[in-house]
Amino acid sequence: MSEQDEARKRIHQLLLSGDNTLKNRDDDGRRDRARTRFEEARAVAEGAGLDDALTIIDRRLALLGTPDEA
């Protein structure tokens, strides 16, 4: 498996984890945990040069708003 394939797999796992955290957890820290996963996915995408993945990651981050809005 290529390095980009590995990065895509990791990004997918992080996005899924963040989405599931938002959907299935009912506590004050869920948005922060999801944001952390989405930000990690963004870093993986940037590091692997996967610019096409940044759009969907940035959308998820935008939907969460700023950390102060939580």
Question: What would you say this structure looks like, in words?
Answer:
This protein is mainly alpha-helical and 70 residues long. The chain is 79% helix and 0% strand. The protein is built from three helices and no strands. The longest helix is centred in the N-terminal third of the chain and has 22 residues, at 3-24.
Write the layout of secondary structure elements.
Elements: H1 3-24, H2 30-48, H3 51-64
Broad structural category = mainly alpha
Number of helices: 3
Instruction: Note the gap between the termini.
Output: 38 Å
Low-confidence residue ranges? none
- Estimate percent helicity: over 70%
β-sheet strand percentage: under 5%
Kindly summarize this structure in a few lines:
The chain is mostly helical and 70 residues long. It is globular and about 40 Å long.
Fill in the keyword field for this structure.
globular, single chain, 70 residues
